[in-house]
Specification:
alpha/beta, single chain, globular, 3-stranded antiparallel beta sheet
């Protein structure tokens, strides 16, 4: 541990950091103190950045379209361990190859190291390079960025500044631990006090470009499969955000399938149809009762979404 990290674990009794032996051998580490001493949990960080298709996004072109905007807010969400870090890395790599911009990331810790190609990439780590996500984001606005990637949007100040930055000529990509598009919007907006709700809803309705919600499911071959929900902002979505009716988003995503939107349930059902996940896994993760009934019938060939 560095002197800074040693002081941190002595003070907080917890430490989250990246352990690097070289650029191809990195771990995300969490150290903790407990009754038997100090323990660590180590997660191997991939040494290659995989494309959106390799990660399992079946219609990656609709996600790539989100990356063509020069301002606005894109959310990548999912529970812990759902592959958000790999998706963020794929998005940054796509931007790095297709645009010539200044891209700043704020992470805790830096996991996948990105090298500047077409973009100038600046990676900052909370703790080592900046005190908080909020202070890094505040500083980033003075560092002439075109794209800002926020590792986690967890408090009012960070969310508020991210929304403001997305309105003032920056493309902002952030993450949250939410399960679907409706929960993401509720979490994003509910951190604000009631007096600000109307104004913030109007700002998000204009600045939001899309929400990618993802989940990793046990695969029939022993690996994992990616199920995801994709919301793309349009006039109907913006109206629901302004009027505080996020519960109606699932209907809009369903009717917006021609634009490239997809519901989480439909993504899971397609994986089941392709025999990539088991009946038990599909039933445990689906919400739709009609889809569950089709799975219980056991006929994949005749099943319809």
């Amino acid at each position: 541990l560095s002197e800074f990290q040693e002081n941190q674990i002595n003070k907080e009794h917890d430490l989250d950091y990246a352990l690097s032996f070289d650029l191809r051998l990195r771990y995300r580490v969490n150290l903790m103190q407990h009754k038997d001493g100090t323990s660590g949990t180590y997660r191997l960080i991939p040494d290659e950045i995989r494309s959106l298709e390799e990660l399992g996004f079946s219609d990656a072109e609709n996600i790539r379209k989100l990356l063509t905007y020069h301002n606005g807010l894109i959310m990548v969400t999912g529970p812990l361990g759902s592959g958000k870090t790999a998706t963020l890395a794929a998005l940054i790599d796509e931007l790095n190859r297709t645009r010539q911009d200044h891209l700043i990331t704020v992470e805790s810790p830096i996991e996948i190291v990105q090298h500047s190609h077409e973009c100038q990439i600046t990676q900052r780590e909370v703790g080592s390079h900046t005190k908080t996500f909020h202070s890094a984001l505040k500083g980033a606005l003075r560092q002439d960025p075109d794209i800002i990637v926020i590792g986690e949007m967890r408090d009012l100040e960070t969310v508020e500044m991210a929304i403001s930055a997305s309105e003032t000529g920056h493309l902002v990509i952030g993450t949250m631990h939410t399960s679907d598009a409706a929960n993401t919007l509720n979490r994003l907006l509910d951190v604000f006090p009631a007096a600000q709700q109307t104004q913030i809803r109007s700002m998000v309705a204009e600045s939001l470009k899309g929400i990618i919600c993802q989940r990793l499911l046990p695969a029939t071959d022993g690996g994992v499969e990616l199920a995801y929900e994709l919301l793309l902002n349009n006039a109907a979505v913006g109206n629901l955000i302004r009027t505080n009716k996020a519960d109606g988003l699932s209907n809009i995503i369903e009717t917006g399938s021609r634009q490239g939107m997809i519901l989480m349930d439909k993504s899971i059902f397609k994986l089941w149809q392709a025999n990539r996940i088991s009946d038990e896994t599909a039933l445990a993760n689906l919400i739709s009762l009609p889809m569950k009934e089709q799975i219980r019938s056991g006929n994949r060939e005749e099943a319809e979404v």
